Amino acid sequence: MPKKRTVAKAILLALLVLLGMIVSPVSATYQISPVPLSGDMISVGKVSDFSVDVSSDGKAVRMITVDIETGTAVNFTLTYGNGDTVDGWMEYSNAGPFQQHTQVSIGGDTKSYDYVGIQEIGRIDVVGYARNYTTDTEYTTGFLVYDTVFGITQGTLMSYYPVADLSNNIIYKFELTATAPVALTYYTDTRASVAKWAVTSPFEIVNEWVVFAQSIATLVYDLVTGLLSWLKFFFVDNLLMTVSLYLAITMAYSFGRAKNMEQGLRKFFKFQRTFFEFIISLWNYFIQIISSFRGIFRI
């Protein structure tokens, strides 16, 4: 299969995966809608004891990601609302050759899963806005802890803690201790933004993504049209002036630094050859970009 078609199919597959996440990203019961790029990602690095409170900055924690090695257990406490807390833990271990074991828990809801594998590091997320659907239209809101690798298809690896009125009970502080160092990353945003995502429907999330994409497209369009207008001004409307100005500048520079006429002519023609090669390389690059787009749309 040609490389261009492979890349194009990979792009389409990524878009389909994103669409699937928006509709039902974790399971048929739990739903976590991806949000437009906003807020901050704080990569802490490897720690075995960590605590942070972001309320003083007017922010909230929307997600915590833990890369946990085999044989490691992690305990954590989430503080939310007006000082309420909930405890949880996660564990990742090898029961034997090719025998992996994962456990996650929050608020007493403990789930475990055994599977065949050889990976030494698992990734477990704690999400501050999730929904647990009992019917197509009825649901509760709360916090979710799940294995991001196997939790996508295994409902047994998702621990859920219901929290009423989630928009007013968002997480602003968490503490973590581990039996061995774990790689920790957490994501924050304004309290208003996290509260919004806690009660926003998947269809509204899709609309937010569309608006975000439109803003990016508008920016790119403005940049391209601006560049094309300048190119038109110099190389279409005033081509003779542009060429004359270029030749005059390069000639003045070449002969101004030359010791004699022959050296000046050499420098001058060297400038023209370099400029011509630059134009050819630029044109080739432009053709490659156009060909890439044609490959994407001819799958």
How many domains? The number is 2
Give the overall pLDDT as a whole number.
76
Strand portion, in percent?
A: 35-45%
Helix-strand sequence = HEEEEEEEEEEEHHHH
Summarize the biggest pleated sheet. 11 strands, antiparallel
Which structural class do the helices and strands define? Answer: alpha+beta
Radius of gyration: 28 Å
> Total number of helical segments?
5
Helix content: 40-55%
Report, as a whole number of angstroms, the end-to-end distance: 11 Å
**Assembly context of the chains:** single chain
Q: What overall form do the CA principal axes indicate?
A: elongated
Describe the protein.
The protein is α+β, with helices and mostly antiparallel strands and 299 residues long. 40% of the residues lie in helices and 37% in strands. The chain folds into 2 domains: 3-200, no CATH class; 213-297. The protein is built from 5 helices and 11 strands. The radius of gyration is 28 Å and the shape is elongated. The relative contact order is 0.16.
Topology at a glance:
Layout: H1 3-23, E1 30-31, E2 40-53, E3 59-69, E4 72-80, E5 84-96, E6 99-106, E7 109-116, E8 121-133, E9 139-147, E10 158-162, E11 171-190, H2 191-199, H3 202-237, H4 239-256, H5 261-297
Antiparallel strand pairs: 1-8, 2-11, 3-8, 3-11, 4-5, 4-11, 5-6, 6-7, 8-9, 9-10
Helix pairs in contact: 1-5, 3-4, 4-5
Q: Tags for this entry?
A:
40% helix, 11 strands, 5 helices, disordered N terminus, alpha+beta, 299 residues, 2 domains
Concise summary:
With 299 residues, the chain is α+β, with helices and mostly antiparallel strands.
